[in-house]
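To illustrate the input format used throughout this study, we show a single complete record. The first block contains the structure-token representation of the backbone; no residue identities are included at this stage. The design step must infer an amino acid for every position from geometry alone.
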């Protein structure tokens, strides 16, 4: 995939403009977004991502267009997993509802910058160390197992990572929020507020999720440009998605199983691909292994089917549990 420098520059400029629209048009005046506002903007960001995919399809062909869509759908589905942690972070830091948009947007900006570094590091590894696919595949298979074994994602508890603990140790922090200020001066001494700390929490927590999502998307496409854009577009709409599905996340009771199936599938795909480009002397004497590879459209179809089935089964389970609870309540009242 030949991507000229001016295309990279134009893409980055579009992403920066989208961020600027969010900063100027949404978080400058703190408020709690309505469901209608969140739905409208979330649909807009998904529309931009899909339009970009069509451009890739028309310019570079259906194969690369399919790789982008598979990567975007995977990143978007994995980002829903992030939302569970974001809810826990917000609750842990007791962020006022009207300031949560700003916290999410700054945290997502930090995450986008950090993910970009991970993407280019991953691309360099793939370019120079082909056996890294074995490692990526094994890691995704392990992550898939932990997803399935852990069950419902929403049951996890949030704990501060090393970055946040170091921040609290090195910097003076206030106990209370000072509006949406990040730094305040008290008795002539600067203090950081919980607002800054929670932004770091959101950004660094997302990067932990990127440790499995980035190897996953490299299993769907080796094109750095597509990996970067799929990650960027999935993150840019995450703020609106948070307010759109907040309170509904607990209904996706089978989400972790669906994500585990997707990560396991991509892990197997990576291992099969590594066997085709084998450089390990103790595997078939260093020669490629004659095993079938999984195509782009098979990957995209599998991801869409798994997400659809996961969502349908989750909603059916919630309706069934609600009906059982209603019958139990009616029985108690009749006694």
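Output of the design step:
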């Amino acid at each position: 995939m030949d991507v000229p420098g001016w295309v990279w520059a134009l893409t980055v400029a579009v992403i920066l403009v989208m961020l600027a629209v969010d900063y100027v048009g949404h978080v400058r005046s703190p408020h709690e977004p309505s469901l209608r506002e969140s739905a409208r903007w979330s649909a807009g960001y998904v529309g931009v991502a899909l339009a970009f995919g069509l451009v890739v399809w028309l310019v570079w062909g259906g194969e690369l267009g399919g790789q982008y869509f598979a990567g975007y759908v995977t990143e978007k589905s994995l980002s829903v997993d992030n939302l569970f942690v974001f809810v826990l972070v917000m609750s842990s830091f007791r962020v006022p509802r009207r300031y949560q948009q700003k916290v999410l947007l700054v945290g997502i900006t930090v995450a986008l910058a950090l993910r970009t570094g991970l993407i280019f590091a991953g691309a360099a590894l793939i370019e120079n160390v082909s056996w890294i696919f074995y490692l990526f595949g094994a890691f995704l298979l392990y992550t898939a197992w932990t997803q399935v074994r852990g069950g419902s994602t929403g049951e996890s508890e949030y704990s501060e990572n090393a970055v946040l603990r170091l921040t609290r140790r090195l910097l003076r922090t206030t106990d209370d929020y000072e509006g949406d200020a990040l730094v305040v001066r008290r008795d002539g001494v600067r203090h950081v507020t919980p607002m800054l700390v929670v932004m770091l929490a959101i950004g660094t927590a997302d990067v932990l999720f990127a440790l499995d999502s980035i190897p996953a998307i490299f299993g769907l496409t080796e094109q750095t440009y597509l990996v970067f854009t799929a990650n960027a577009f999935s993150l840019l709409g995450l703020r609106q998605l948070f307010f759109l599905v907040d309170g509904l996340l607990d209904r996706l009771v089978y989400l972790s199983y669906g994500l585990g199936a997707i990560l396991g599938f991509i892990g197997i795909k990576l291992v099969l691909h590594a066997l085709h480009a084998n450089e390990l002397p103790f595997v078939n004497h260093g020669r490629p292994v004659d095993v079938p590879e999984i195509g782009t459209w098979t990957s995209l179809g599998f991801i869409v089917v798994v997400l659809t089935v996961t969502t349908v089964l989750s909603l059916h389970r919630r309706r069934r549990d609600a009906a059982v609870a209603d019958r139990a309540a009616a029985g108690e009242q009749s006694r």
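Structural context for interpreting the output: DSSP finds eleven helices and two strands in the chain. The two ends are 71 Å apart (CA to CA).
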